[in-house]
Design a protein that fits this description.
CATH topology of one domain: Nitric Oxide Synthase, Chain A, domain 1
Mean pLDDT: 94
Helix content: 25-40%
Strand order of the largest sheet: 1-2-13-10
Shape: globular
Oligomer: single chain
Length: about 375
């Protein structure tokens, strides 16, 4: 895309591109009228706001365009909650609880996004500090190890500095931190009563359940920016449902996370097998899929998800749209070459609308970051 002379020009061009696509895909015929109204808003205020139908379609397009997501076959099913009037942390915390209730749906997970106040010329009006609405604390120990989830160790220290104190177990749910621009961050208790957790068991090994391992049912990403037509929504938590290997291979299996493979290998007697890691990975993933199924919680295995992604790619080709994909994310971390997505070349085309990475909120709002331990 060619360089433009100002951020205002860039926002206008982004709005024009999005609205043109929206009108074409939704088969409406008032493009020139809508563009004129948008340009008038831009001239008067320096910004514009999508109508609800535009916001809804834009959020769905962002899912469709996100290069890292393998589950995009279902992008048209995303439900959109329009809460753009909210930038008060207390009101946002209430809405986050509602989001969890609606998305969890008794285990029949619903793809859902809740969109809060948009950014303006001064930047984000509100940020949610959590990476996901649900997550487990990571406590740095005296020997340098981490009890719990190392991924959340820095956030855990931020929460503790604001006054939170967890129980000190390997699976302590984290609190929420919400911040409005120009105000201190606010701390809210962990959503214990609203979090559906799945305790892990194995279909063939009864002692597996004795370990007390668990994971939460709904992955609600909370720290990404939704960009639609040049408008940024810095607080727009969204979710689908879990891919089994996200939990079994990465969250619980990675050496930089819970690192459970040695313990799983011990349970099954794999420790002296040269393929002990491979065998432990299979059994850990089998336990995750089995446990979610037993609990009645929606989840998808990596073989089915890969086939669904290929169907998504075929539908996009039929619609005349290029598929953006990041190979390192699309290919599952278990049995990659046994899936059809492994054998294709995927290109990250950086299409918009999209869900974009942001700096950690404590950096974005100039809160004093903690030095690494």
């Amino acid at each position: 895309m060619p360089a433009r002379s100002s951020s205002g020009d860039t926002r206008t061009a982004g709005a024009e591109e999005f609205l043109t696509t929206f009108v074409a895909e939704r088969a409406t015929n008032d493009l020139e009228t809508r563009l004129a109204r948008m340009r008038g808003d831009m001239a008067a205020t320096g910004s514009w706001q999508p109508a609800f139908e535009e916001l809804e379609h834009g959020a769905r397009m962002a899912w469709r365009n996100n290069a890292r997501c393998i589950g995009r076959l279902f992008w048209p099913s995303l439900k959109v909650r329009d809460l753009r009037h909210l930038d008060d942390p207390d009101g946002i915390a209430v809405a986050l609880g509602e989001h969890l209730d609606l998305a969890t749906n008794g285990g029949k997970i619903i793809p859902l996004i809740t969109v809060f106040a948009p950014s303006d010329r001064e930047g984000p009006r509100v940020r949610i500090w959590n990476h996901q609405l649900l997550g487990y604390a990571g406590y740095r120990q005296a020997d340098g190890s981490v009890l719990g989830d190392p991924k959340n160790e820095v956030f855990t220290r931020q929460a503790m500095a604001l006054g939170w104190k967890g129980a000190g177990t390997a699976f302590d749910l984290l609190p929420w931190i919400v911040q409005k621009r120009g105000a201190p961050p606010r701390l809210y208790p962990p959503p214990t009563g609203r979090c559906l957790e799945v305790f892990l068991s194995h279909p063939r090994e009864p002692c597996f359940a004795e370990r007390g391992w668990r994971w939460y049912a709904v992955p609600v990403l909370a720290d990404m920016c939704l960009r639609i037509g040049g408008v940024d929504f810095s607080a727009a938590p969204f979710n689908g449902w879990y891919l089994g290997t996200e939990i079994g291979s990465r969250d619980l299996g990675d050496t930089g996370r819970y690192d459970l493979l040695p313990a799983v290998a011990e349970i099954f007697g794999f420790s002296n097998d040269p393929l002990w890691k491979d065998r432990a990975l299979v059994e850990l993933n089998a336990a995750v899929l089995h446990s979610f199924e037993q609990a009645g919680v929606r989840i998808v295995d990596h073989h089915r998800a890969s086939s669904e992604f290929m169907e998504f790619a075929a539908r996009e080709a039929k619609a005349g749209r290029a598929v953006s994909g990041d190979w390192s994310w699309i290919v599952p971390p278990l049995s990659g070459s046994a899936t059809p997505v492994f054998h294709k070349v995927w290109q990250n085309r950086h299409l918009l609308p999209d869900y974009l990475l942001q700096k950690p909120a404590w950096e974005d709002f100039h809160a004093a970051p903690f030095a690494p331990a």
